[in-house]
């Protein structure tokens, strides 16, 4: 818990930086997370009530960290989160433009919510793309193992039933959805 004062931003960023370092999140991902966290902290402080504290937590799951920030204060819309903060010693127009670009480019990593009198901001940091690839390969190999195990356990009739009645339907659904996505993508890429 930290007081919601501008002077405490450095302390908060140092805590987040040390925690991300401990979780082995480095380089661009760490820098991006720290910049987004700083902007979120400034927005929470700007909307905080006097005398309240801000809670900061950093959690890790696989190679991804989640930075959760919360404080009691006035509500602000998620769209307001993208707007520059004024009146807190923020910089000139070029700094505000850079802040705006940073927030808009990373809007998928920022989640704002409000419960009661509290504002909550969650930020994602880490190798999400690599994590997705790892999960895909794990699912692929798990499917191979399950299929091999079922081929030894089940009779030929049961295997034929599963293939003809279940897997063919899944295959058909997958191919139709693939066509549904690729046709408009090709059309709009040509125009």
Care to describe what's here?
This protein has 191 residues and is an alpha+beta fold. 60% of the residues lie in helices and 18% in strands. The protein has helices at residues 9-22, 27-47, 78-82, 93-105, 128-153, 156-190; strands at residues 2-3, 53-61, 64-72, 110-115, 118-126.
Gyration radius (Cα, Å) is: 24 Å
User: Which strand-content bin applies to the residues?
Assistant: 15-25%
Coarse structural class: alpha+beta
How many strand units? 5
- Topology as a string of helices (H) and strands (E): EHHEEHHEEHH
Largest sheet: 5 strands, antiparallel
What is the CA–CA distance across the termini?
Answer: 53 Å
Fraction of residues in helices?
55-70%
Main sheet: which strands, in order across?
Answer: 1-2-3-5-4
Question: Mean pLDDT, nearest integer?
Answer: 82
Number of helices: 6
Low-confidence segments, given as residue ranges, are none
Please state the overall shape, judged from the principal axes of the Cα atoms.
elongated
């Amino acid at each position: 818990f930290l007081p919601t004062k501008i002077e405490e931003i450095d302390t908060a960023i140092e805590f987040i930086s040390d925690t991300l370092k401990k979780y082995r999140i480095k380089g661009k991902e760490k820098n991006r997370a720290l910049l987004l966290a700083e902007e979120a902290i400034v927005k929470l402080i700007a909307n905080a009530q006097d005398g309240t504290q801000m809670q900061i937590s950093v959690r890790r799951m696989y190679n991804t960290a989640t930075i959760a920030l919360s404080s009691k204060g006035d509500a602000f819309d998620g769209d307001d989160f993208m707007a520059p903060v004024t009146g807190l010693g923020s910089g000139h127009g070029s700094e505000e433009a850079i802040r705006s670009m940073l927030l808009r480019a990373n809007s998928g990593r920022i989640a704002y919510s409000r419960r009661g009198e509290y504002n909550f901001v969650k930020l994602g940091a880490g190798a999400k793309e690599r994590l997705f690839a790892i999960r895909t390969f794990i699912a692929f190999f798990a499917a191979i193992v399950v299929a091999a195990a079922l081929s030894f356990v089940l009779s030929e009739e049961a295997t034929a039933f599963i293939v003809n009645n279940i897997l063919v339907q899944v295959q058909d659904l997958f191919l139709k959805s693939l066509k549904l996505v690729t046709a408009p993508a090709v059309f709009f890429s040509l125009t």
